Amino acid sequence: MPDTPIEKLARPSIQRIVPYSPGKPTREVQAELGPIDVVKLASNENPLGPSPKAVEAMAAALAEVYVYPDPVCAELTAALAQKWNVPAEGILIGRGSDEVIHMLGLAYLNPGDEVIYADPPFALYPLTTDMMDAVHVRIPCQDFRHDLDAFAAAITERTKLIFVASPHNPTGTINTAEEVERFLGKVPDHCIVVFDEAYYEYVDDPAYPDTLRYVREGRRVAVLRTFSKAYALAGLRIGYGMTTPEIAEMMVKVRQPFNISTIAQVAALASLADNEQVERSRRMVVEGREWLYGQLDRLGLPYVRSQANFVFFDTGVDSRALFDELMRRGVTVRTGDIFGYPTYIRVSIGTPEQMQRFVGALEEALAALEQRGEHGG
Question: What are the chain's domains?
Fold first, then answer.
């Protein structure tokens, strides 16, 4: 056996990384509980599924998978540039918007550079920071929202990337156009502000900012979006970033060759052509959020009003214990302890039938925990 432990060979910054913990897969739940019907409301997926046009395009492309995919996603990039009226040279397609975050880190972070993000964060922000041996600057949320004044006050000469998730995961909150405008006026030009808008399509608040305006103006910003949520292509892993051609030029240098499969490219392109896809998804989520608020009001459970396809709320009990009770009833959610809120859970908005199933399971689970005398921690 080697004398040197393998961890001694790894970079110290890599040893600090806590691996991402995904939502519990349906197959895993069924393996534990048997072949029951599982309602997965843990990962903010779209149960309506992809556009029929996307399914048709994928089927047609299967015969060509022996050929390497287009390395620059030319058709998809052109379609996105036209849709959003931004320069094609500033668009990067990634394996989900996660990979675009990874590209930003590889291209712009040096050891000791500072990365500002809200606490609790999306997992990829601290992961990328650690990966590049950069410095975490965590700004606690105020009233479940990004505190952009505190973000601005935290900027130093070492600040390089600033992540603003809007809507924020796990709370579903946004920052208004006025707040964003005021914040950007305080950001020096050695910083890149990254607006992570994975849940953009579900927003219906008129105060939501048009961040692409800053891209068109040539400001040092990047806007991230995805095909995983409203377009229901999570299993294909495809998202994109829009920024200035100058910022993108450095990111292209670290992009992996052929990073997006042919199947993912044609599915995304076809999805963009289906104008009803987003509207179907948006309508289900907006109606589902309002219905769930009513149920939580009835149960006396405080919640955060959301602009995303999930709701974050206080159950008053230990979220891990509640998770176990819900899982026994065939429903999975995301526990709040991983975000620093041990009595909260995050539940994705599903179909009306799934939401009714969830609320029924929630009432049963809470009653079971009350019977056992388990209360909030």
Answer: 6-49+276-371 (3.90.1150.10), 52-274 (3.40.640.10)
Reduce the secondary structure of the chain to three states and give it as a string: CCCCCHHHCCCHHHHCCCCCCCCCCHHHHHHHHCCCCCEECCCCCCCCCCCHHHHHHHHHHHHHCCCCCCCCCHHHHHHHHHHHCCCHHHEEEECHHHHHHHHHHHHHCCCCCEEEEEECCCCHHHHHHHHCCCEEEEEECECCECCHHHHHHHCCCCEEEEEEECCCCCCCCCCCHHHHHHHHCCCCCCCEEEEECCCHHHCCCCCCCCCHHHHHCCCCEEEEEECCCCCCCHHHCCEEEEECHHHHHHHHHHCCCCCCCHHHHHHHHHHHCCHHHHHHHHHHHHHHHHHHHHHHHHHCCCEECCCCCEEEEECCCCHHHHHHHHHHCCEECEECHHHCCCCEEEEECCCHHHHHHHHHHHHHHHHHHHHCCCCCC
Question: What is the separation of C-alpha 324 from the centre of its chain, rounded to a whole number of angstroms?
Answer: 24
* Banded pLDDT at 2 (limits 50, 70, 90): confident
Predicted local distance difference test score (pLDDT) of residue 13: 74
pTM score? 0.92
**pLDDT tens, position by position, 92-145:** 999 999 999 999 999 999 999 999 999 999 999 999 999 999 999 999 999 999
Q: Report the b/e string of 344-359 with b at 16+ CB within 10 A.
A: bbbbbbbeeebbebbb
